[in-house]
Amino acid sequence: MKRAQHIATIYIGLSLCSCGQAASVERSLEKDSQVSGLALVAVVGQGAAVIPFDQPARYYTLKWGISIPTFAPSGRVIAWNMRAMFEEPKVVIETINGAQLFRKALWRDLSLLSLSDKCGRIALLERSGPKYPGAFDLRWTSMDLSGNEFVDRMQGPQSHGADWSPDCRFIVYGKGDEIRLFDANQRTSVQIGRGYDPAWSPDGKTIVYRNSAGAVSFMDAKGQAQSCPLESHRLLGAIRWSPDGTYVSFIERISPARPALFSATTRLVACRAREGDCLTVKEFGEIRGYYDEFHWILGYRDFCRDCQPGEAF
């Protein structure tokens, strides 16, 4: 009975996927939550939503106040870019259980795009100098923000994603509708495709991205297309790999067959990346601003231990 109630609460959209496939994905994810604490987390303003697969969703009010998180692909480290009122901006890097690794006040406005705790590197976006009004520089630095290596110049503050390769030699990133690859050793950048929000698989073999039609697509680091079983999905934001590379998650728009009975118009989906089997994790109404917010973590029971209960969103 408890299991049935949990599924009814969290996975209310099973009818939108093949029921047998969704049930199989649900069982696997439930086991991963029980063993490793696998969950999806979103941070919006001062609130955080934690969606595990073996327990109901949890909601918190952040101890930092308004903060923008950057989650490492390992699912175990977070960099918080804090913008509290009447306080100087700062970056705090900590583990999922709240152990602080680094803290530093910022003297300039930075947007942290990608964090790799494996090799201690960050990709970030900052405003260009006065010679380039309205432009922003994509740069990379060490995890303690020492050093500052130039990658590329953007013609506005909007960046379409950036991600470190697992060996930390390359950054794949979006520039306009181009997907580019930067070699940190050679300090060169080349276009490898067209699309948005590229992200590297944990094994380094596949880059997932949103193509010009909004569909999920796969390619390798040379820009060669790979078979993708998720091409029928039309996304509203970025695609995220689970820490072990088994799953991807994303938000997509849905068109219910009987609109009068369903108020949800978007859903958060978790899929087996290679097989294409999917599960609706949560349905929403018409939401704005959440599309890139859900990330995978491990050890969800330790996340936000010092936070207060918050409102659902």
How would you describe this protein?
- The protein is mostly beta strands and 313 residues long.
- The protein has one domain (2-304): TolB, C-terminal domain (Neuraminidase, 6 Propeller), CATH 2.120.10.30.
- Helix content is 9%, strand content 42%.
- The chain has 2 helices and 25 strands.
- The chain has helices at 2-10, 19-36, and strands spanning 39-44, 47-52, 58-61, 67-71, 77-82, 90-95, 100-105, 110-116, 121-127, 136-142, 149-154, 162-164, 170-175, 178-183, 188-194, 196-200, 207-210, 216-219, 225-226, 240-241, 247-253, 266-272, 278-284, 295-297, 308-309.
- Strands 24-1-2-3-25 form a 5-stranded antiparallel β-sheet, with no helix packed on it. Strands 4-5-6-7 form a 4-stranded antiparallel β-sheet, with no helix packed on it.
- β20 and β21 (247-253) form a beta hairpin.
- The longest helix has 18 residues, at 19-36.
- Mean pLDDT is 87; it is low at 1-16.
Largest sheet: 5 strands, antiparallel
What is the fourth-level CATH superfamily? TolB, C-terminal domain
* The CATH top-level class label: Mainly Beta
Secondary-structure content class:
mainly beta
How much of the residues is beta strand, in percent?
Answer: 35-45%
Supply the number of structural domains.
Answer: 1
Q: Mean pLDDT, as a whole number? A: 87
Q: Give the termini separation.
A: 26 Å
CATH topology: Neuraminidase
Q: What is the name of the CATH architecture?
A: 6 Propeller
Strand order of the largest sheet: 24-1-2-3-25
Helical content stands at under 10%
Count of separate DSSP helical elements: 2
How many E strands? 25
Taking pLDDT < 50 over at least 5 consecutive residues as the criterion, the unreliable ranges are 1-16
Alpha carbon gyration radius: 19 Å
Form type: globular
Element-by-element helix/strand order: HHEEEEEEEEEEEEEEEEEEEEEEEEE
